[in-house]
Write a structure and sequence with these properties.
The complex is a heterodimer of chains A (758) and B (329).
Chain A lengths: L1 H4 L12 H25 L3 H5 L8 H15 L1 H5 L21 H15 L6 H27 L5 H11 L1 H4 L10 H21 L2 H17 L3 H17 L5 H18 L8 H4 L4 H22 L3 H28 L7 H7 L3 H5 L1 H4 L9 H8 L2 H12 L5 H19 L4 H23 L44 H29 L7 E4 L5 E4 L1 H12 L5 E3 L5 H8 L12 H12 L2 H10 L2 E7 L10 H15 L24 H5 L1 H7 L12 E2 L4 E2 L10 E6 L5 E6 L9 H27 L1
Parallel strand pairs in A: 3-4
Antiparallel strand pairs in A: 1-2, 4-8, 5-6, 7-8
Helix pairs in contact in A: 2-7, 2-8, 4-6, 4-26, 6-7, 7-8, 7-10, 8-23, 10-11, 10-13, 11-13, 12-15, 12-22, 13-15, 15-16, 21-23, 22-23, 25-26, 27-28, 27-29
Chain B lengths: L1 H16 L8 H12 L3 E3 L1 H8 L6 E7 L8 H20 L7 E7 L4 H6 L7 E5 L14 E3 L8 H11 L14 H20 L1 H8 L2 H16 L2 H7 L5 E2 L5 E2 L10 H24 L6 H29 L11
Classes of the chains: A mainly alpha (758), B alpha/beta (329).
Chain lengths: 758, 329
C-alpha cells in the first residue's frame, strides 16, 4: 500500500490542507480500495450462495483434480506426474504439459493456512481463489492507472471498473477455478511493473516485471500476449525516436530475466528461443543493442558522415538478422507458429485446418452485443480514453494505445480474449471519466474571461512532453474551467446515473449469465421457486459407485475432465485435446454404424459410453448439437469413412426426424441419444424439445451396447458395451435371432386367434 | 434456332476429333481431343452418355455446371478456370495416359436432360465415373460425387480428391502457375511507393508524425473491432436483410447474429458517444464565453443521453430479457 499513501493528487482540497490533507486522502484511498476489493469479491459469490461451494464447468475440474494430487503427493511428485487415467491407453505426461502456477498457488495458500492452524478444505480454497485474486486485480489496476494518469480519481475508477466489469467476472466467479483466475491479476500487475520500469529506467522494477512475467508464464498460455506486447511497445518507442537509456535498461533486464524465468516451466521449456511467437521479443532485444550502440557512438563522435555510416550498418545488420530468422524458420530449427496463434491472424485458417480449435465455443468471433454485454458503457468511454492518451503522449501512454488496438483486434477474433481487453478498457474508460469528473466537480468558479483568460487551471494536465511541440486539435485553446453550477450539476448528475446503471448492469449480468456452475442447472417452477437439475452429478456418482474403478468411459472430449474429476474413472479423451487423432477416433466411433464402432470400442477397451442428451428437457448444449463437430474432426482423419455430407439431407438440412439421412439414423450417437425415447410418449408423438422436431415412430435399436443408466431428466445416458457373443455370432445376428423368436411366438398366437374366429 | 444449336453441339466433339484420325477407342479419342483443346471436353447430353456408358476401362471426371449469366452461379464461374487448368495440367502431365482419366464439362444449357435425369438442383457438381472393367475396375457403378458445399473454388482440393479416389494410377502434380503479371505489378507498386516516399520525405514526415492522424487511425481501429467487424469478416454475414414485409431489417434478431450495416450503426453510435465525451472533457472547459459554454454542455450532455438511451434500446432488441433503459427511447 506504499504508493497508495503517496501524494498522488495535486487537486486542492477545500477542507483539507497541508500534511493532514495528505494523510486524510491516503487513508480515504485505502478505505476506498478495500471497499472495492470487498465489492469485487462479493459480486462473484452469487453461485456459492445460490447453489453451493462447487467447482464449475469443465477445465476447472481438471485443475481441481491436479491441485488435489499436488496437495496429497507433494510438489516433486506433481512435477513428474504421469497420469494413466486419461487418454486411455496413451496416458498423459500431466506434470510436463500443464501450467502449474494455479495449482501451486492454491497449494501454497493451503499450506500457509495449515501453518497458522486453519485447516481449510482444498476445495474451498480452489472455489474462492478467483474472487480473492479479483480483489488483487482491482488493486493492480489502481496502481497501473495511477502511473498512467495524473488525475487522482482515475486509479480508483479503474479499480472499481475492473472489480465489477462482467468481462472479467465471466472467468472469475467463485468456482471458476481456471488459469485465468490468477492470470489476469498477473497480467495487469506485470504491465504495472513494466510501466514503472520504463518510467524510472530501473533495474529493480525491470527485475520485478520479469519475476511476475515468470509467474504469469507458469499460470496461463496467454503469457504470449505479454511476450509480444512489451517488445512492440519498445519497438514503437524506438520508431518514434524515443530511445532512451531508461528503455534500454528496463527492456534488457526484463527480457533476460523473464526469458530465463519462463524457461523453468517444463511445458514452456525451450520454446522462448525456438518458437516464432517469441521471436519478436528476441528481435527487439537485438535491435535495442544496436540502437543503444549507435546512440553511444553518436554521443562520442558527432560527425554526420559517421552517423550515416552507422545507420546503414544498423539497417544491414537488421536485414541480415531478419534473413537469418527466415532461413532458420524454413530449415525447421525455429518452430513455426502454433495453430492457435496462427488462427488469430488468418481467421479462416482454423476452420479449414484445425477443426478442433474452431469447434470450441470460446474460439468463435465476437458479435457486438457480446462487447456491450461484457463492458456496458465502458465500451464507448474506451475510445475517448484512448484519444486522451494522445494528449500528452508519454512513453506509458503509447503503451495504452498499442494495448488498446491490439487487444480490441484479438477480442474481436476470439470471444475468450475479451478477457485481455477488459483491463485496458477499464483503464482507458477510467481516464476518460476521471477527466470529466475532474473538470465538472470543481467547486470554485473560474474568473470571467475578460479579466484573466488563462489563469485558472485547476490541474497541471496540459503539460506536453518537451521535444514534441505538437498538440491535439481539441486541446489547442487555453484551459478555462466550467462557469455555471448548472452545467456542473447536470453533468455530474448524468454521470452518477450512468455509473449507477453500470453497477446495476454488472450485477444483473453476473447474476444471470455468469453465475451458473453449468454442472448444476437451475430452472424456475411455475410458482417461481427454484428447481435444481442435477443430472450430471447424479450420473457421475452412479459411475463412481456402480462400475469398476478402472472401467474405461468413452464420451466426447467435453466431459473428459468432469468424468475424471467427479466419477474418477479413466477416459479416452478429455478437454486437454493434445492428441487430435485420438479425438477423431472417438468421433468416428460416435458417428459410424454400430458394426464399425464396436471394433473401435473393443480395441480401446471401452466399458461404458456416455452421451449427453437434452431432447427431453430442451437443454441445447447436448451431443446431438455438437455432433457435427465430431463428424468434422473424424472426417479430418478418415475422409473416406466419415463424410459430413452424408449427415445432411439432400437439401442440406441437419435433421433428426423421419427425413434424417440414413448415416445419421444409423450412427451410434443418434441411436444412443434417442434409444427408448419414443416410449416416453404416446405412439408417434415423440418430440425432441431442442431441435423442435417430431421423431420417427419407430425408435432406434441397439445391438452392441445396452442401456446402463439414464439420469432423471435424461440429460446423461450411459451405455455398457456388450461383451463378445457367447456363440461367436455378431451382435446383430444375435439380436435378430432373439427378435425372430419373439416374432414367431407372436405370429403363432395371432394365427391361433385367426383360427378360432374361423 | 434450337435445331442449329443442337446441331453445332452435336458436331462439337467431332470437330475436335477431326484434328486426329479417330481410332474408335473412346478413351484415346477423348484424350487426344482434350490434349488438342488444352482444356476439358465440352460435353452435351449425347456425348456425355456416350462417354460415361459402361463397360468402360477408363475414368471420367465430369463437372456439371451452369455458366450462363441467367443462373448467376458465382461458384461455377469462379471454379471454371481452375477446372480447366486442372484438366489441362493433368492430361499434359500424363503424356502416356496411364491414369486413363478424361476430364469433361457439361453446361446446363447443353445438358438439360442429364441434369433432369439426375434431379440436380444445384451446380456445380463434380462426378467421377470410375472404370468398370480393366485392372482398376471398381465394382460400384454409382459415380463418386465431390462435395462443393464447403464453398471451395480452388483446384488443389479437387486434385487431392481425385488422387484419393483413383489410388492405383499415377497422379500428375498440380502446380499453380506463377502469376507474373501480379508479381510485376506488385513490385512496380512497391518500388513506386518507396520512390514516392523518398521523394516526398519532407512532406511525408510531418504526416506520419501527425498526432491527430495516429489518434484518428487508432480510434477507427478500436471502433471497428469493438463493434464486431471481425465477426462480419469471419462469418461473412449479409450486409442487410429484408424484414419479410418489403422493408429493411436493420438489426438481426438474436444475441449471436448481426448484419454488416448493424455493426456500422453501432460503431457510429460508439463514435458519437466517445466524441461527445471528448468534447465534454476537453473542449468545453476551453470555451471562454460562459454562455457558449453553457449551451455546449447542454448539447453534448443531451447527445450522450439520447445516444446512450438509443444504444440501450437497440441492445434490448438483441437481448430480449434486458431490463434496463434510459429515457427517451
Amino acid at each position: 500500500m506504499a504508493s497508495a499513501t503517496k501524494p498522488q493528487s495535486t487537486a486542492s482540497g477545500v477542507f483539507f490542507e497541508g500534511e493532514t490533507a495528505r494523510n486524510t486522502r491516503g487513508l480515504l484511498r485505502i478505505i476506498i480500495l478495500c471497499t472495492i476489493a470487498a465489492t469485487a469479491v462479493a459480486s462473484r459469490l452469487f453461485s456459492v450462495i445460490r447453489f453451493e461451494s462447487i467447482i464449475h464447468e469443465f477445465d476447472p475440474w481438471f485443475n481441481f483434480r491436479a491441485t488435489k494430487y499436488l496437495v496429497q503427493n507433494g510438489f516433486y511428485d506433481f512435477w513428474d506426474w504421469f497420469d494413466d487415467r486419461t487418454w486411455h491407453p496413451l496416458g498423459r505426461v500431466t506434470g510436463g504439459t500443464l501450467y502449474p502456477g494455479l495449482m501451486v498457488t492454491s497449494g501454497a495458500i493451503w499450506h500457509a493456512l495449515r501453518a497458522i492452524s486453519l485447516p481449510v478444505d482444498i476445495r474451498n480454497i480452489c472455489v474462492l481463489l478467483a474472487p480473492g485474486f479479483s480483489g488483487l486485480t482491482a488493486f493492480a489496476s489502481y496502481l497501473l492507472t495511477s502511473e498512467l494518469s495524473d488525475s487522482p480519481s482515475a486509479g480508483l475508477l479503474a479499480a472499481i471498473f475492473m472489480g465489477i466489469a462482467p468481462g472479467y467476472i465471466s472467468r472469475s466467479v467463485a468456482g471458476s477455478y481456471d488459469n485465468e483466475a490468477i492470470a489476469i491479476f498477473l497480467l495487469v500487475f506485470t504491465f504495472y511493473l513494466w510501466i514503472k520500469a520504463v518510467k524510472e529506467g530501473s533495474v529493480m522494477w525491470g527485475a520485478f516485471a520479469a519475476l511476475f512475467y515468470g509467474y504469469m508464464v507458469s499460470a496461463w498460455g496467454g503469457y504470449v500476449f505479454i511476450t509480444n506486447l512489451l517488445p512492440l511497445h519498445a519497438f514503437v518507442l524506438i520508431c518514434m525516436g524515443r530511445f532512451s537509456p531508461r528503455l534500454y535498461v528496463s527492456y534488457t533486464t526484463w527480457y533476460a530475466l523473464g526469458t530465463l524465468a519462463s524457461m523453468q516451466i517444463p511445458f514452456v521449456g525451450f520454446l522462448p528461443i525456438r518458437s516464432s511467437e517469441h521471436m519478436s521479443a528476441l528481435g527487439v532485444f537485438g535491435l535495442l543493442q544496436l540502437v543503444g550502440f549507435t546512440d553511444y557512438i553518436r554521443q562520442q563522435l558527432p560527425s554526420k558522415q559517421f552517423q550515416l555510416l552507422l545507420r546503414t550498418l544498423v539497417l544491414v545488420i537488421f536485414v541480415v538478422a531478419f534473413g537469418l530468422l527466415v532461413l532458420l524458420t524454413v530449415s525447421g530449427t525455429i518452430a513455426p507458429w502454433t495453430g492457435r496463434f496462427y488462427s488469430l491472424w488468418d481467421t479462416g485458417y482454423a476452420k479449414i485446418h484445425i477443426p478442433i480449435i474452431a469447434s470450441v465455443s470460446e474460439h468463435q468471433p465476437t458479435a457486438w452485443p457480446a462487447f456491450f454485454f461484457d463492458l456496458n458503457m465502458l465500451i464507448w468511454l474506451f475510445p475517448a480514453g484512448v484519444y486522451m492518451c494522445f494528449r500528452s503522449l508519454k512513453d506509458e501512454q503509447v503503451f495504452v494505445v498499442i494495448y488498446a488496438v491490439l487487444a480490441s483486434y484479438f477480442a474481436g477474433v476470439m470471444v475468450r480474449l475479451m478477457l485481455t481487453l477488459t483491463p485496458v478498457v477499464c483503464i482507458a474508460a477510467a481516464m476518460a471519466l476521471s477527466q470529466i469528473l475532474d473538470t465538472f466537480l470543481v467547486a470554485g468558479e473560474p474568473a470571467e474571461p475578460i479579466e484573466a483568460p488563462s489563469t485558472k487551471t485547476n490541474d497541471a494536465k496540459d503539460k506536453t512532453v518537451p521535444g514534441i511541440p505538437e498538440v491535439l486539435r481539441s486541446t489547442k485553446g487555453p484551459l478555462v474551467g466550467i462557469y455555471s453550477y448548472m452545467s456542473k450539476a447536470m453533468i455530474t448528475g448524468a454521470v452518477t446515473c450512468y455509473l449507477l446503471l453500470f453497477v446495476m448492469h454488472c450485477t444483473w449480468v453476473t447474476s444471470n449469465a455468469y453465475s451458473s456452475p453449468s454442472v448444476v442447472l437451475a430452472s424456475r417452477l411455475p410458482d417461481g421457486s427454484q428447481h435444481i437439475i442435477d443430472d450430471y452429478r447424479e450420473a457421475y456418482y452412479w459411475l463412481r459407485q456402480n462400475t469398476k474403478p478402472d472401467a474405461k468411459v468413452m464420451s466426447w472430449w467435453d466431459y473428459g475432465y468432469q468424468i475424471g474429476g467427479m466419477a474418477d474413472r479413466p477416459t479416452l479423451v478429455d478437454n486437454n485435446t493434445w492428441n487430435n487423432t485420438h479425438i477423431a477416433t472417438v468421433g468416428k466411433a460416435m458417428s459410424s454404424r454400430e458394426e464399425v464402432s464396436y471394433p473401435i470400442m473393443r480395441q480401446h477397451e471401452v466399458d461404458y459410453v456416455l452421451v449427453v442428451f437434452g431432447g427431453l428437457l430442451g437443454y441445447s448444449g447436448d451431443d446431438i448439437n455438437k455432433f457435427l463437430w465430431m463428424i468434422r474432426i473424424a472426417e479430418g482423419i478418415w475422409p473416406d469413412e466419415v463424410k459430413e455430407r452424408d449427415f445432411f439431407t439432400s437439401r442440406g438440412e441437419y435433421r433428426v426426424d423421419d427425413e434424417a439421412p440414413p448415416a445419421m439414423k444409423n450412427s451410434l450417437m443418434y441411436k444412443m441419444s434417442y434409444y427408448n425415447f419414443d416410449k416416453l410418449f404416446p405412439a408417434g408423438q415423440a418430440q425432441d424439445r431442442v431441435r423442435g422436431s417430431r421423431l420417427p415412430a419407430q425408435g432406434p435399436e441397439l445391438s452392441t451396447v445396452e442401456e446402463a443408466f439414464t439420469s432423471e431428466n435424461w440429460i446423461v445416458r450411459i451405455y455398457k458395451v456388450k461383451d463378445l457373443d457367447n456363440l461367436g455370432r455378431s451382435h446383430q445376428d444375435a439380436g435378430a435371432f432373439e427378435k425372430g423368436n419373439k416374432k414367431k411366438k407372436a405370429g403363432k398366437r395371432k394365427g391361433a386367434r385367426v383360427l378360432r374366429v374361423d | 434456332m434450337r435445331i442449329s444449336q443442337f446441331f453445332t453441339a452435336a458436331l462439337l466433339p467431332f470437330s475436335a476429333l477431326a484434328a486426329k484420325k479417330p481410332t474408335g477407342d473412346r478413351f484415346q479419342d477423348s484424350n487426344a481431343a482434350q490434349l488438342a483443346n488444352g482444356r476439358p471436353l465440352q460435353l452435351d447430353d449425347k456425348s456425355y452418355d456416350a462417354l460415361t456408358k459402361g463397360p468402360r476401362d477408363y475414368s471420367v471426371a465430369v463437372l456439371l455446371t451452369a455458366l450462363d449469366a441467367r443462373f448467376s452461379c458465382t461458384l461455377c464461374k469462379a471454379f471454371q478456370p481452375e477446372w480447366e487448368m486442372l484438366g489441362k495440367q493433368w492430361s499434359k502431365g500424363d503424356k502416356k495416359a496411364e491414369s486413363r482419366l478424361v476430364f469433361g464439362t457439361l453446361d446446363f444449357l447443353d445438358g438439360k436432360q442429364t441434369f433432369q435425369s439426375m434431379a440436380l438442383q444445384t451446380a456445380p457438381v463434380l462426378l467421377l465415373f470410375r472404370p468398370t472393367t480393366g485392372p482398376n475396375a471398381y465394382n460400384d457403378p454409382i459415380p463418386a460425387r465431390f462435395d462443393f458445399s464447403s464453398g471451395t473454388d480452388k483446384a488443389e482440393p479437387i486434385h487431392t480428391w481425385l488422387s484419393r479416389q483413383l489410388p492405383n494410377v499415377p497422379h500428375p502434380p498440380f502446380v499453380r502457375p506463377l502469376n507474373y503479371l501480379k508479381i510485376g505489378v506488385t513490385i512496380t507498386i512497391v518500388l513506386g511507393v518507396i520512390t514516392f516516399i523518398a521523394a516526398a520525405w519532407p512532406v511525408f514526415m510531418p504526416i506520419i508524425q501527425n498526432r491527430n492522424l495516429w489518434a484518428a487511425l487508432s480510434l477507427i481501429a478500436v471502433l471497428l473491432f469493438t463493434s464486431g467487424h471481425m465477426f462480419n469478416h469471419i462469418r461473412k454475414v449479409p450486409y442487410v436483410a429484408g424484414d419479410g414485409k418489403g422493408g429493411i431489417s436493420y438489426f438481426a434478431g438474436g444475441f449471436q447474429n448481426q448484419f454488416g450495416l448493424e455493426t456500422q450503426i453501432v460503431a457510429g453510435m460508439y463514435g458519437i458517444l466517445a466524441f461527445a465525451t471528448i468534447s465534454l472533457a476537453l473542449k468545453v472547459p476551453r470555451i471562454a464565453d460562459p454562455r457558449a459554454q453553457q449551451i455546449a454542455v447542454f448539447v453534448w450532455g443531451g447527445v450522450i443521453l439520447g445516444m446512450y438511451s438509443f444504444l440501450l434500446s437497440v441492445f434490448r432488441i438483441k437481448n430480449g430479457g434486458y431490463p434496463f433503459w434510459l429515457p427517451p427511447f
